[in-house]
Amino acid sequence: MNSKRSSLSDQSFGLMLLSPAFAFLLVIAVYPIFRVLWLSLLTQNLGTGLQPRFSGFDNYVRAFSDGHFHQTLANTCLFAFAAVSVELVLGLFFALLLRRSFRGRTAARTIALLPWALPTAVLALAWVWIFNDQFGVLNDLLLRLHLLEKPVAWLGRGDTAMFAVIFADVWKTTPFMMIILLAGLQNIDRGLYEAGRIDGANAWQQFFFITLPLLVPSIMLATLFRFLQSFGIFDLIYVMTGGGPGGATETVAIYSYNTFLRYLDFGYGAALIVITFLIMAGIAIVIYWPLSRARGAPSA
After folding, report:
1. What's the whole-model pTM score?
2. What pLDDT is recorded for position 294?
């Protein structure tokens, strides 16, 4: 009896200690989620001066017929797929390079992580100056190498602005891919490579039949994190182009932001956020499902 009372008192004391954390989580996470869900069911536009009214799923129907939203969704998908694909290839290349033993490897690993560690907004401003058509380093370098006949307004043209923001994002977040893949590479048993060499496997065969299959969980995990981050990209593009020129780089996150804070259309902005969240959740399931099956599969 005394042991049960002691157990109950310990549980009560533990709950008391955790209650501030639960309350904090409720305020900053749970309440905003339900608030956004409720707003998405209202027609509330402070710019018109009308009182909010319950409109059900009208905002969601509006989103599916909104050509502007479709364009921003296409821009977001293009940015995410292009950036993550390049980051995966480069991240794997640098991970393989930095796994090798050479003098100064620790310093090289530290330097390689610097772009990822620096603030995104600061780096975005730096890239704005690099891509500047009059004073930018990129145009000056290409002109000196005779690769351009005249300066290019990289951020002022729709066909080059998306390339510019993708390039900046790849430079910023490739180290994130690299560090996750490097951790996965270091978990591969070196004895497998020795056995492969004994069986006559060359470097390419070892890569395709040993490294890649064992690195799949790390690749999928890194891809999952980066794709979700890229799909919700805001700060880098907002600082570099603001979604321009002419909406060429406008993503769903920027469109939702403008709908909320520029047009004060809270109901429709909330619906856009919910739809974006559902799309990201679906992408996460598609990526994570084969990973979970691979981990749960019984070993031979």
Report:
1. 0.84
2. 54
